[in-house]
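Thought: the user wants the 3D structure for the chain below. I'll pass the sequence to the structure tool as-is, report back what it returns, then summarize two notable features.
Action: structure_tool
Action Input:
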Amino acid sequence: MALSGPEVEKQVPAEPRPGRMLQSWWSLVFCLCFYGFMAQMRPGESFITPYLLGPDKNFTQKQVTNEITPVLSYSYLAVLVPVFLLTDYLRYKPVLLLQGLSYVSVWLLLLFGSSVLHMQFMEFFFSITMAARIAYSSYIFSLVPPACYQRMAGYSRASVLLGVFTSSVLGQLLVTMGRVPFSTLNYISLAFLTFSLVLTLFLKRPKRSLFFNRGAPACPGASPSELDRMNLGQVQPTGGKPGRLPASWRDSALAHMLRELGRTAQLPQLRLWSLWWVFNSAGYYLIVYYVHILWNVVNPTTDTTRVYNGGADAASTLLGAVTSFAAGFVKIRWALWAKLIIAVVTVLQAGLIFLMYKTSNIWLCYSAFVLFRGSYQFLVPIATFQIASSLSQELRALVFGVNTFLATVLKTIITLVVSDKRGLGLPVRSQFLIYSVYFLVLFAAYVLAALLAGLRHFQQGRHQPLPPAQELMSPVREPAAQDGPAPEAGMRAVGEPMQRPEAKA
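Observation:
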Protein backbone atom coordinates (compact mmCIF):
# COMPACT_ATOMS: atom_id res chain seq x y z
CA MET A 1 0.00 0.00 0.00
CA ALA A 2 1.04 3.62 -0.33
CA LEU A 3 3.65 4.86 2.11
CA SER A 4 5.63 8.03 2.33
CA GLY A 5 9.07 9.03 3.49
CA PRO A 6 12.04 6.71 4.02
CA GLU A 7 9.80 3.64 4.35
CA VAL A 8 9.06 3.82 0.64
CA GLU A 9 12.70 3.32 -0.26
CA LYS A 10 13.06 0.35 2.08
CA GLN A 11 9.82 -1.52 1.57
CA VAL A 12 8.28 -0.77 -1.82
CA PRO A 13 9.06 -3.64 -4.20
CA ALA A 14 11.18 -2.98 -7.21
CA GLU A 15 9.95 -2.72 -10.77
CA PRO A 16 9.09 -6.01 -12.46
CA ARG A 17 12.22 -7.90 -13.41
CA PRO A 18 13.12 -8.57 -17.05
CA GLY A 19 11.97 -11.76 -18.64
CA ARG A 20 8.80 -13.69 -18.02
CA MET A 21 7.68 -11.54 -15.07
CA LEU A 22 7.97 -8.32 -17.09
CA GLN A 23 6.16 -9.92 -20.02
CA SER A 24 3.37 -11.08 -17.69
CA TRP A 25 3.05 -7.57 -16.22
CA TRP A 26 2.71 -5.96 -19.63
CA SER A 27 0.13 -8.57 -20.65
CA LEU A 28 -1.86 -7.68 -17.56
CA VAL A 29 -1.59 -3.96 -18.34
CA PHE A 30 -2.77 -4.53 -21.92
CA CYS A 31 -5.76 -6.62 -20.83
CA LEU A 32 -6.88 -4.12 -18.22
CA CYS A 33 -6.50 -1.13 -20.51
CA PHE A 34 -8.19 -2.88 -23.42
CA TYR A 35 -11.12 -3.73 -21.18
CA GLY A 36 -11.25 -0.14 -19.89
CA PHE A 37 -11.32 1.12 -23.48
CA MET A 38 -14.00 -1.30 -24.71
CA ALA A 39 -16.26 -0.64 -21.71
CA GLN A 40 -16.54 2.99 -22.87
CA MET A 41 -17.55 2.13 -26.45
CA ARG A 42 -21.16 3.26 -26.37
CA PRO A 43 -21.63 5.44 -29.49
CA GLY A 44 -25.36 5.76 -28.88
CA GLU A 45 -24.84 7.27 -25.43
CA SER A 46 -24.57 10.87 -26.60
CA PHE A 47 -27.93 10.59 -28.36
CA ILE A 48 -30.07 8.97 -25.67
CA THR A 49 -32.09 12.10 -24.97
CA PRO A 50 -33.03 12.90 -28.62
CA TYR A 51 -33.76 9.18 -29.04
CA LEU A 52 -36.24 9.26 -26.14
CA LEU A 53 -37.82 12.50 -27.36
CA GLY A 54 -37.89 11.45 -31.01
CA PRO A 55 -40.33 9.32 -32.99
CA ASP A 56 -38.72 6.07 -31.80
CA LYS A 57 -40.04 6.48 -28.24
CA ASN A 58 -42.22 9.63 -28.31
CA PHE A 59 -41.75 10.59 -24.67
CA THR A 60 -42.56 14.19 -23.84
CA GLN A 61 -39.93 16.62 -22.65
CA LYS A 62 -41.72 16.90 -19.29
CA GLN A 63 -41.64 13.12 -18.82
CA VAL A 64 -37.91 12.94 -19.57
CA THR A 65 -37.05 16.00 -17.44
CA ASN A 66 -39.29 15.54 -14.41
CA GLU A 67 -40.07 11.79 -14.27
CA ILE A 68 -37.30 9.76 -15.92
CA THR A 69 -33.99 11.60 -15.37
CA PRO A 70 -34.50 12.29 -11.60
CA VAL A 71 -34.56 8.54 -10.96
CA LEU A 72 -30.84 8.42 -11.81
CA SER A 73 -29.96 10.57 -8.77
CA TYR A 74 -32.24 8.67 -6.39
CA SER A 75 -31.12 5.20 -7.43
CA TYR A 76 -27.44 6.21 -7.48
CA LEU A 77 -27.75 7.33 -3.86
CA ALA A 78 -29.43 4.04 -2.97
CA VAL A 79 -26.83 1.74 -4.57
CA LEU A 80 -23.61 3.73 -3.99
CA VAL A 81 -22.71 2.44 -0.52
CA PRO A 82 -23.76 -1.20 -1.07
CA VAL A 83 -21.81 -1.39 -4.33
CA PHE A 84 -18.80 0.27 -2.68
CA LEU A 85 -18.75 -2.35 0.09
CA LEU A 86 -19.50 -5.28 -2.23
CA THR A 87 -16.70 -4.19 -4.55
CA ASP A 88 -14.13 -4.77 -1.83
CA TYR A 89 -15.81 -7.76 -0.17
CA LEU A 90 -16.26 -9.67 -3.45
CA ARG A 91 -12.81 -8.63 -4.74
CA TYR A 92 -13.78 -6.48 -7.70
CA LYS A 93 -14.42 -8.93 -10.53
CA PRO A 94 -18.04 -9.85 -9.59
CA VAL A 95 -18.90 -6.15 -9.45
CA LEU A 96 -17.33 -5.63 -12.88
CA LEU A 97 -19.59 -8.44 -14.12
CA LEU A 98 -22.55 -6.70 -12.47
CA GLN A 99 -21.58 -3.48 -14.22
CA GLY A 100 -21.42 -5.25 -17.58
CA LEU A 101 -24.81 -6.90 -17.06
CA SER A 102 -26.30 -3.56 -16.00
CA TYR A 103 -24.96 -1.89 -19.15
CA VAL A 104 -26.57 -4.57 -21.29
CA SER A 105 -29.83 -4.15 -19.35
CA VAL A 106 -29.75 -0.38 -19.95
CA TRP A 107 -29.55 -0.77 -23.70
CA LEU A 108 -32.09 -3.59 -23.83
CA LEU A 109 -34.56 -1.34 -22.02
CA LEU A 110 -33.71 1.56 -24.32
CA LEU A 111 -34.35 -0.57 -27.37
CA PHE A 112 -37.40 -2.54 -26.26
CA GLY A 113 -38.91 -0.54 -23.40
CA SER A 114 -41.96 1.54 -24.21
CA SER A 115 -43.23 3.10 -20.96
CA VAL A 116 -42.00 5.64 -18.44
CA LEU A 117 -41.57 2.79 -15.93
CA HIS A 118 -39.25 0.96 -18.34
CA MET A 119 -37.13 4.09 -18.71
CA GLN A 120 -37.05 4.55 -14.94
CA PHE A 121 -35.68 1.02 -14.63
CA MET A 122 -33.18 1.96 -17.32
CA GLU A 123 -32.00 4.84 -15.11
CA PHE A 124 -31.77 2.46 -12.15
CA PHE A 125 -29.44 0.11 -14.03
CA PHE A 126 -27.47 3.11 -15.21
CA SER A 127 -26.95 4.13 -11.60
CA ILE A 128 -25.48 0.68 -10.88
CA THR A 129 -22.97 1.12 -13.69
CA MET A 130 -22.03 4.51 -12.26
CA ALA A 131 -21.57 3.16 -8.73
CA ALA A 132 -19.50 0.26 -10.08
CA ARG A 133 -16.86 2.62 -11.51
CA ILE A 134 -14.93 2.15 -8.29
CA ALA A 135 -14.52 -1.55 -9.10
CA TYR A 136 -12.32 -0.86 -12.12
CA SER A 137 -10.32 1.95 -10.53
CA SER A 138 -9.58 -0.20 -7.46
CA TYR A 139 -9.14 -3.46 -9.34
CA ILE A 140 -6.18 -2.30 -11.38
CA PHE A 141 -4.20 -1.51 -8.22
CA SER A 142 -4.89 -4.87 -6.60
CA LEU A 143 -2.96 -6.76 -9.29
CA VAL A 144 0.24 -4.74 -9.62
CA PRO A 145 3.02 -3.97 -7.11
CA PRO A 146 3.07 -0.51 -5.47
CA ALA A 147 6.06 0.54 -7.58
CA CYS A 148 3.78 0.36 -10.65
CA TYR A 149 0.82 2.31 -9.20
CA GLN A 150 1.60 5.65 -10.81
CA ARG A 151 2.19 4.22 -14.29
CA MET A 152 -0.87 2.00 -13.99
CA ALA A 153 -3.02 5.00 -13.05
CA GLY A 154 -1.79 6.87 -16.12
CA TYR A 155 -2.34 3.93 -18.48
CA SER A 156 -5.84 3.16 -17.19
CA ARG A 157 -6.94 6.80 -17.25
CA ALA A 158 -5.63 7.22 -20.78
CA SER A 159 -7.46 4.10 -21.97
CA VAL A 160 -10.75 5.22 -20.45
CA LEU A 161 -10.49 8.75 -21.85
CA LEU A 162 -9.54 7.38 -25.24
CA GLY A 163 -12.55 5.06 -25.13
CA VAL A 164 -14.94 7.90 -24.26
CA PHE A 165 -13.47 10.13 -26.98
CA THR A 166 -13.51 7.38 -29.63
CA SER A 167 -17.07 6.41 -28.74
CA SER A 168 -18.32 10.00 -29.00
CA VAL A 169 -16.54 10.63 -32.32
CA LEU A 170 -17.76 7.33 -33.77
CA GLY A 171 -21.35 8.08 -32.77
CA GLN A 172 -21.21 11.55 -34.31
CA LEU A 173 -19.69 10.28 -37.56
CA LEU A 174 -22.28 7.53 -37.88
CA VAL A 175 -25.13 10.00 -37.33
CA THR A 176 -23.86 12.93 -39.40
CA MET A 177 -22.03 11.26 -42.25
CA GLY A 178 -23.49 7.76 -42.23
CA ARG A 179 -27.06 8.95 -41.51
CA VAL A 180 -27.46 6.05 -39.10
CA PRO A 181 -30.72 6.28 -37.10
CA PHE A 182 -30.52 6.47 -33.32
CA SER A 183 -32.06 3.02 -32.90
CA THR A 184 -29.33 1.41 -35.04
CA LEU A 185 -26.74 3.32 -33.02
CA ASN A 186 -28.15 1.76 -29.87
CA TYR A 187 -27.90 -1.73 -31.39
CA ILE A 188 -24.22 -1.04 -32.15
CA SER A 189 -23.72 0.11 -28.53
CA LEU A 190 -25.37 -3.08 -27.29
CA ALA A 191 -22.98 -5.16 -29.39
CA PHE A 192 -19.94 -3.35 -27.96
CA LEU A 193 -21.25 -3.75 -24.41
CA THR A 194 -21.92 -7.45 -24.88
CA PHE A 195 -18.34 -7.88 -26.08
CA SER A 196 -16.98 -5.99 -23.04
CA LEU A 197 -19.11 -8.22 -20.79
CA VAL A 198 -17.48 -11.28 -22.34
CA LEU A 199 -14.06 -9.70 -21.75
CA THR A 200 -14.90 -9.38 -18.06
CA LEU A 201 -15.11 -13.17 -17.78
CA PHE A 202 -11.43 -13.47 -18.66
CA LEU A 203 -10.17 -10.93 -16.13
CA LYS A 204 -8.12 -12.27 -13.25
CA ARG A 205 -9.72 -12.17 -9.81
CA PRO A 206 -7.40 -10.72 -7.11
CA LYS A 207 -6.67 -12.72 -3.97
CA ARG A 208 -6.94 -9.73 -1.64
CA SER A 209 -8.65 -6.37 -1.44
CA LEU A 210 -8.45 -3.18 0.56
CA PHE A 211 -10.80 -3.55 3.54
CA PHE A 212 -12.31 -7.01 3.99
CA ASN A 213 -9.86 -9.41 2.30
CA ARG A 214 -6.53 -8.09 3.46
CA GLY A 215 -4.63 -11.33 4.03
CA ALA A 216 -0.91 -11.43 3.43
CA PRO A 217 0.98 -8.93 1.28
CA ALA A 218 0.17 -9.29 -2.40
CA CYS A 219 3.74 -10.20 -3.31
CA PRO A 220 6.95 -11.13 -1.48
CA GLY A 221 8.65 -8.09 -0.08
CA ALA A 222 5.57 -5.93 -0.32
CA SER A 223 5.28 -3.42 2.48
CA PRO A 224 2.48 -3.57 5.01
CA SER A 225 -0.08 -0.85 4.62
CA GLU A 226 -0.41 2.01 7.07
CA LEU A 227 -3.58 0.41 8.33
CA ASP A 228 -1.84 -2.92 8.93
CA ARG A 229 0.70 -1.16 11.09
CA MET A 230 -2.00 0.89 12.79
CA ASN A 231 -3.83 -2.30 13.80
CA LEU A 232 -0.84 -3.81 15.57
CA GLY A 233 -1.42 -4.09 19.28
CA GLN A 234 -4.99 -2.89 19.01
CA VAL A 235 -6.81 -6.20 18.65
CA GLN A 236 -9.21 -6.94 21.47
CA PRO A 237 -10.49 -10.30 22.58
CA THR A 238 -13.16 -11.83 20.40
CA GLY A 239 -16.72 -11.97 21.47
CA GLY A 240 -18.58 -8.93 22.71
CA LYS A 241 -21.00 -7.67 25.26
CA PRO A 242 -24.71 -7.77 24.51
CA GLY A 243 -25.95 -4.67 22.74
CA ARG A 244 -22.58 -3.89 21.19
CA LEU A 245 -21.07 -4.68 17.82
CA PRO A 246 -19.07 -7.92 17.68
CA ALA A 247 -15.37 -7.50 18.34
CA SER A 248 -14.62 -8.61 14.79
CA TRP A 249 -16.45 -5.52 13.55
CA ARG A 250 -15.05 -3.18 16.21
CA ASP A 251 -11.54 -4.30 15.31
CA SER A 252 -12.12 -4.41 11.56
CA ALA A 253 -10.08 -2.38 9.12
CA LEU A 254 -13.09 -0.21 8.30
CA ALA A 255 -13.74 0.64 11.98
CA HIS A 256 -10.11 1.65 12.53
CA MET A 257 -10.21 3.73 9.37
CA LEU A 258 -13.33 5.60 10.47
CA ARG A 259 -11.62 6.53 13.72
CA GLU A 260 -8.52 7.62 11.84
CA LEU A 261 -10.69 9.62 9.43
CA GLY A 262 -12.01 11.70 12.32
CA ARG A 263 -8.46 12.73 13.20
CA THR A 264 -7.40 13.58 9.65
CA ALA A 265 -10.53 15.71 9.12
CA GLN A 266 -8.82 18.43 11.16
CA LEU A 267 -6.38 19.20 8.31
CA PRO A 268 -7.43 22.56 6.78
CA GLN A 269 -6.53 21.68 3.19
CA LEU A 270 -8.30 18.33 3.47
CA ARG A 271 -11.46 20.09 4.62
CA LEU A 272 -11.27 22.75 1.91
CA TRP A 273 -10.88 20.37 -1.02
CA SER A 274 -13.37 17.88 0.40
CA LEU A 275 -15.97 20.65 0.62
CA TRP A 276 -15.14 21.65 -2.95
CA TRP A 277 -15.58 18.03 -3.99
CA VAL A 278 -19.00 17.79 -2.35
CA PHE A 279 -20.55 21.10 -3.44
CA ASN A 280 -19.00 21.62 -6.86
CA SER A 281 -19.27 18.04 -8.06
CA ALA A 282 -22.94 17.97 -7.04
CA GLY A 283 -23.57 21.00 -9.25
CA TYR A 284 -21.36 19.62 -12.02
CA TYR A 285 -23.27 16.37 -12.32
CA LEU A 286 -26.62 18.14 -12.28
CA ILE A 287 -25.45 20.09 -15.34
CA VAL A 288 -24.17 16.94 -17.03
CA TYR A 289 -27.40 15.04 -16.33
CA TYR A 290 -29.66 17.67 -17.87
CA VAL A 291 -27.56 19.38 -20.54
CA HIS A 292 -28.70 17.00 -23.29
CA ILE A 293 -32.32 17.91 -22.56
CA LEU A 294 -31.37 21.59 -22.76
CA TRP A 295 -29.68 21.01 -26.11
CA ASN A 296 -32.89 19.52 -27.43
CA VAL A 297 -34.79 22.63 -26.27
CA VAL A 298 -32.26 24.99 -27.86
CA ASN A 299 -32.10 22.97 -31.08
CA PRO A 300 -35.41 21.07 -31.49
CA THR A 301 -34.56 19.78 -34.96
CA THR A 302 -36.14 16.68 -36.46
CA ASP A 303 -33.12 16.21 -38.75
CA THR A 304 -30.98 13.75 -36.82
CA THR A 305 -27.93 14.49 -38.97
CA ARG A 306 -27.86 18.00 -37.46
CA VAL A 307 -27.64 16.77 -33.87
CA TYR A 308 -24.02 17.22 -32.78
CA ASN A 309 -24.19 15.91 -29.21
CA GLY A 310 -21.45 13.37 -29.88
CA GLY A 311 -19.10 16.06 -31.15
CA ALA A 312 -19.73 18.19 -28.05
CA ASP A 313 -19.08 15.21 -25.77
CA ALA A 314 -15.89 14.37 -27.66
CA ALA A 315 -14.63 17.96 -27.48
CA SER A 316 -15.41 18.25 -23.78
CA THR A 317 -13.66 14.95 -23.10
CA LEU A 318 -10.58 16.09 -24.99
CA LEU A 319 -10.48 19.48 -23.25
CA GLY A 320 -11.01 17.78 -19.90
CA ALA A 321 -8.04 15.49 -20.58
CA VAL A 322 -5.87 18.47 -21.58
CA THR A 323 -6.80 20.56 -18.53
CA SER A 324 -6.34 17.58 -16.20
CA PHE A 325 -2.88 17.03 -17.66
CA ALA A 326 -2.01 20.73 -17.45
CA ALA A 327 -3.06 20.89 -13.79
CA GLY A 328 -0.15 18.61 -12.92
CA PHE A 329 2.32 21.31 -13.98
CA VAL A 330 0.82 24.21 -12.02
CA LYS A 331 3.23 25.42 -9.32
CA ILE A 332 1.29 27.41 -6.76
CA ARG A 333 1.37 27.78 -3.01
CA TRP A 334 -1.97 26.05 -2.66
CA ALA A 335 -2.33 26.63 1.08
CA LEU A 336 -2.45 30.36 0.36
CA TRP A 337 -4.09 30.66 -3.07
CA ALA A 338 -6.40 27.62 -3.27
CA LYS A 339 -9.57 29.44 -2.15
CA LEU A 340 -9.04 32.28 -4.60
CA ILE A 341 -8.37 29.94 -7.54
CA ILE A 342 -11.45 27.88 -6.69
CA ALA A 343 -13.48 31.11 -6.54
CA VAL A 344 -12.25 32.21 -9.99
CA VAL A 345 -13.08 28.85 -11.57
CA THR A 346 -16.46 28.75 -9.85
CA VAL A 347 -17.56 32.20 -11.07
CA LEU A 348 -16.46 31.18 -14.58
CA GLN A 349 -18.66 28.10 -14.28
CA ALA A 350 -21.59 30.21 -13.08
CA GLY A 351 -21.23 32.47 -16.12
CA LEU A 352 -21.07 29.51 -18.51
CA ILE A 353 -24.20 27.96 -16.99
CA PHE A 354 -26.03 31.28 -17.31
CA LEU A 355 -24.95 31.46 -20.96
CA MET A 356 -26.37 27.96 -21.54
CA TYR A 357 -29.62 29.11 -19.91
CA LYS A 358 -29.88 32.33 -21.91
CA THR A 359 -28.66 31.48 -25.40
CA SER A 360 -30.76 30.29 -28.31
CA ASN A 361 -27.68 29.39 -30.35
CA ILE A 362 -26.86 25.70 -30.10
CA TRP A 363 -23.19 26.27 -30.91
CA LEU A 364 -22.83 28.73 -28.05
CA CYS A 365 -24.57 26.21 -25.81
CA TYR A 366 -22.20 23.44 -26.93
CA SER A 367 -19.15 25.68 -26.43
CA ALA A 368 -20.25 26.78 -22.96
CA PHE A 369 -20.65 23.16 -21.89
CA VAL A 370 -17.24 22.18 -23.26
CA LEU A 371 -15.58 25.03 -21.32
CA PHE A 372 -17.63 24.25 -18.20
CA ARG A 373 -16.56 20.64 -18.23
CA GLY A 374 -12.92 21.51 -18.93
CA SER A 375 -12.79 23.97 -16.02
CA TYR A 376 -14.13 21.34 -13.63
CA GLN A 377 -11.66 18.71 -14.85
CA PHE A 378 -8.81 21.21 -14.27
CA LEU A 379 -9.51 21.21 -10.53
CA VAL A 380 -10.23 17.48 -10.17
CA PRO A 381 -6.58 16.27 -10.22
CA ILE A 382 -5.56 19.16 -7.95
CA ALA A 383 -8.27 18.24 -5.44
CA THR A 384 -7.29 14.57 -5.76
CA PHE A 385 -3.67 15.34 -4.96
CA GLN A 386 -4.43 17.77 -2.13
CA ILE A 387 -6.73 15.23 -0.45
CA ALA A 388 -4.53 12.21 -1.07
CA SER A 389 -1.13 13.68 -0.26
CA SER A 390 -1.54 13.45 3.51
CA LEU A 391 -3.40 10.12 3.65
CA SER A 392 -2.62 6.45 3.32
CA GLN A 393 -4.12 4.61 0.36
CA GLU A 394 -6.86 3.11 2.55
CA LEU A 395 -7.88 6.49 3.95
CA ARG A 396 -7.79 8.01 0.47
CA ALA A 397 -10.35 5.48 -0.71
CA LEU A 398 -12.54 6.14 2.33
CA VAL A 399 -12.31 9.95 2.07
CA PHE A 400 -13.13 9.91 -1.64
CA GLY A 401 -15.99 7.54 -0.93
CA VAL A 402 -17.42 9.76 1.82
CA ASN A 403 -17.05 12.88 -0.35
CA THR A 404 -18.81 11.18 -3.26
CA PHE A 405 -21.61 9.98 -0.99
CA LEU A 406 -22.18 13.45 0.48
CA ALA A 407 -22.15 14.99 -3.00
CA THR A 408 -24.72 12.41 -4.09
CA VAL A 409 -26.95 13.23 -1.11
CA LEU A 410 -26.80 16.95 -1.95
CA LYS A 411 -27.42 16.29 -5.64
CA THR A 412 -30.42 14.12 -4.78
CA ILE A 413 -31.93 16.79 -2.52
CA ILE A 414 -31.57 19.43 -5.24
CA THR A 415 -33.07 17.06 -7.80
CA LEU A 416 -36.05 16.34 -5.56
CA VAL A 417 -36.71 20.04 -4.97
CA VAL A 418 -35.96 21.45 -8.43
CA SER A 419 -36.49 18.71 -11.03
CA ASP A 420 -38.86 16.09 -9.69
CA LYS A 421 -42.55 16.49 -10.49
CA ARG A 422 -43.22 15.99 -6.76
CA GLY A 423 -41.14 19.11 -6.11
CA LEU A 424 -41.10 22.25 -8.23
CA GLY A 425 -40.91 20.22 -11.45
CA LEU A 426 -39.24 23.09 -13.30
CA PRO A 427 -38.54 23.01 -17.05
CA VAL A 428 -34.92 22.51 -17.96
CA ARG A 429 -34.15 26.17 -18.80
CA SER A 430 -35.37 27.31 -15.38
CA GLN A 431 -33.27 24.60 -13.76
CA PHE A 432 -30.14 25.97 -15.41
CA LEU A 433 -30.92 29.44 -14.07
CA ILE A 434 -31.11 27.99 -10.55
CA TYR A 435 -27.84 26.09 -11.06
CA SER A 436 -26.10 29.31 -12.15
CA VAL A 437 -27.29 30.98 -8.94
CA TYR A 438 -26.06 27.93 -7.00
CA PHE A 439 -22.55 28.37 -8.40
CA LEU A 440 -22.69 32.12 -7.69
CA VAL A 441 -23.44 31.36 -4.04
CA LEU A 442 -20.46 28.99 -3.95
CA PHE A 443 -18.32 31.72 -5.53
CA ALA A 444 -19.33 34.21 -2.82
CA ALA A 445 -18.45 31.69 -0.11
CA TYR A 446 -15.02 30.96 -1.64
CA VAL A 447 -14.23 34.68 -2.07
CA LEU A 448 -15.14 35.38 1.54
CA ALA A 449 -12.98 32.47 2.71
CA ALA A 450 -10.09 33.67 0.51
CA LEU A 451 -10.31 37.19 1.93
CA LEU A 452 -10.31 35.92 5.50
CA ALA A 453 -7.36 33.63 4.79
CA GLY A 454 -5.45 36.48 3.13
CA LEU A 455 -6.04 38.80 6.08
CA ARG A 456 -4.84 36.17 8.53
CA HIS A 457 -1.75 35.52 6.44
CA PHE A 458 -0.70 39.16 6.17
CA GLN A 459 -1.39 39.74 9.85
CA GLN A 460 0.99 36.92 10.72
CA GLY A 461 3.67 38.36 8.47
CA ARG A 462 4.41 37.89 4.78
CA HIS A 463 7.39 35.59 5.32
CA GLN A 464 6.13 33.52 8.23
CA PRO A 465 5.89 29.84 7.11
CA LEU A 466 2.53 28.14 7.21
CA PRO A 467 2.00 25.02 9.37
CA PRO A 468 3.36 21.84 7.73
CA ALA A 469 -0.11 20.29 7.53
CA GLN A 470 -1.19 23.09 5.19
CA GLU A 471 1.88 23.16 2.95
CA LEU A 472 0.68 20.88 0.22
CA MET A 473 2.52 21.59 -3.01
CA SER A 474 1.53 20.94 -6.59
CA PRO A 475 1.58 17.35 -7.93
CA VAL A 476 4.79 18.01 -9.87
CA ARG A 477 6.69 18.93 -6.74
CA GLU A 478 5.43 15.97 -4.68
CA PRO A 479 5.62 12.90 -6.91
CA ALA A 480 5.63 10.54 -3.95
CA ALA A 481 2.02 11.37 -3.25
CA GLN A 482 0.92 10.09 -6.65
CA ASP A 483 1.49 6.41 -6.01
CA GLY A 484 -2.12 5.69 -5.19
CA PRO A 485 -5.16 5.52 -7.46
CA ALA A 486 -7.16 8.58 -8.27
CA PRO A 487 -10.88 8.24 -7.67
CA GLU A 488 -12.79 7.11 -10.70
CA ALA A 489 -15.33 9.53 -10.55
CA GLY A 490 -16.33 9.05 -10.22
CA MET A 491 -15.92 8.72 -8.60
CA ARG A 492 -14.66 10.52 -12.86
CA ALA A 493 -12.49 7.91 -10.15
CA VAL A 494 -10.28 7.21 -13.19
CA GLY A 495 -10.77 10.04 -15.61
CA GLU A 496 -13.96 9.69 -17.63
CA PRO A 497 -15.23 6.26 -16.79
CA MET A 498 -18.59 4.78 -17.45
CA GLN A 499 -20.60 7.69 -18.53
CA ARG A 500 -23.80 8.35 -20.16
CA PRO A 501 -24.07 11.76 -21.74
CA GLU A 502 -26.08 12.59 -18.68
CA ALA A 503 -23.40 11.00 -16.52
CA LYS A 504 -20.07 11.63 -18.17
CA ALA A 505 -17.62 12.90 -15.64
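Final Answer: Structure generated. The longest helix spans residues 428-460. The CA atoms of residues 208 and 214 lie 5 Å apart.
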